[in-house]
Amino acid sequence: MTVERTLVTELVGNTIAQLWTDAGTSCTWAVLAFRLTPSCDQIVALEKRLDVGDLTALVEAEDLTIRPIVVFDLFADCCSETWLADVVNREALRGEVIRVEVVDLPEGFLTDQVRTRQEKDDVMGWEIYTTAGVCSLAVRNSSNGYYGGAVVFDRRVAEPDPTWTEITKDYSA
Questions:
Q1: What would the mean pLDDT of 71-85 be, rounded to a whole number?
Q2: 38: which strand partners?
Q3: Do 128 and 15 contact (CB within 8 A), yes or no?
Q4: CB contact at 8 A, 149 and 76
Q5: Do 67 and 160 meet the contact criterion of CB atoms below 8 Å apart?
């Protein structure tokens, strides 16, 4: 599975106020969405840039105020399925995001899991380091072994889709 660098750049420096998924209701894609709250330092730095007429800062300010929800598609190639599988230590997302790392999952993670939906699974994991701890996310792609999936930045929105499920505690699907 592949992931865009946008996942890291969109989250760092923010607090994740809310987290949603649609629980992979579609066989070809799912969503992972974060409501971001900027840190005081980010707001001050943005205001300084706005004072000197930085047009990029204007777009960033609009994103933070009008479209604070960042949506990533958990995309699956034809004949495969991709979904948010695990959120561990959800409480850590209450802190400001310091960094996001792609992680190797422990040996046996795939074979020890009985959640496969097809013949072969790939799993992508992230650790989101915040001032309140570390939250781990895992996204699974299940296929016949030929197809795969990806996590791609899709859009920013003002409000969550009513079909999404908010994740307020540790989660497994």
A1: 81
A2: 14
A3: no
A4: yes
A5: no
Scan for tokens 């850590």, then name that residue: 92
Q: What are the backbone dihedrals phi and psi of residue 47, each rounded to the nearest 5 degrees, phi first? A: -60, -40
Q: Cα separations (Å) of 49 from 6, 15, 18, 38, 46?
A: 22, 21, 27, 15, 5
Output the 3-class SS for the chain: CEECCHHHHHHCCEEEEEEEECCCCCCCEEEEEEEEEECHHHHHHHHHHHHCCCHHHHHHHHHHHHCCEEEEEEEECCCCEEEEEEEECHHHHHCEEEEEEEECCCCCHHHHCCCCCCCEEEEEEEEEEECCEEEEEEEEEEECCCCCEEEEEEEEECCCCCCCEECCCCEEC
Q: What is the mean pLDDT of residues 18-47?
A: 73
Average pLDDT over residues 26-44: 73
Cα gap 121→117, rounded to integer Å: 8
Residue 133: pLDDT band with limits 50, 70, 90: very high
- pTM here is 0.76
Residues 6 or more apart whose CB falls under 8 angstroms from that of 11 comprise 34, 36, 70, 97, 100, 128
**Amino acid sitting at position 105:** L
pLDDT at 67: 74
Radius of gyration of the chain (CA): 17
